[in-house]
Amino acid sequence: MCRSIKTLRAPALPGEATDEDIRAAALQYVRKVSGFRAPAAHNREVFDEAVAAVARATADLLGGLEVRGHPARGADHGAGEGGPVAGC
Q1: Which residue of 16, 33, 34, 84 sits 20 to 30 Å from the alpha carbon of 2, by its own alpha carbon?
Q2: CB 73 within 8 A of CB 52
Q3: What are the start-end ranges of the H helices in the chain?
């Protein structure tokens, strides 16, 4: 459990974080917080739910971050289309 969770946003990551990257970070976080590398059978469901919840929160965070020089993940690149025209 000594491996660090890597940064999943640009520019530290050359491309977008994959679902696999996000899940691996979530699993590492839950392992660290719970103190279990692999939970016992009676804790498996709550452990897996925690990993899924952390992964969702991480994806939401990464999707909303605005990093200078890099658009937010999933940003609408045509946001200005159909809006008011300058000078009108």
Answers
A1: 16
A2: no
A3: 19-34, 44-64
